[in-house]
Give the backbone structure.
Amino acid sequence: MKTKIKAFTLSEMLVVLLLTAIVVGIAFSILSLVQRQMGGIQNTLEDGSRFRQLKQQAAIDINTFQKFKFIKKDSALVFSHPMDSIVYKFENKTIIRHADTFKVNLNSFKLYYNGIETSEGKIDAFKLNTLQNGYQRQIFLYKLQDSETLMH
């Protein structure tokens, strides 16, 4: 009464476990690579959106306010008109505008008045050069002077 039971041998089971372990290891390493790539993409997207937000806000402010000046000792750019004013304060790797903080790696900052580069006082244009994740980005904004500004 010998009946043969159909089953896997121990060596077959060990081969299956080994192959499963290899496949799972490869899957986890690929998942790790994908997560790192997604993190890099997310950081680049966040840096780009912060830069675009700064550019958009500065463009709105330069078109809203009439007078602009740079105070060198405070490292502050002041936008003003008779009813209100806005201050952009330049600090280490950040630009602060009221409650907004823009984290940018500022390479250079140039100020202009009547097309001539200046370092302090009245301005009518400015240029910011930044370096974010290996990309150089630039903001150049200017305000056309109206007759009232030119008369003063």
Q: What stands out?
A: Residues 57 and 151 are 28 Å apart (CA to CA). DSSP finds two helices and ten strands in the chain. The radius of gyration is 30 Å. The helical segments are 10-64, 147-151.
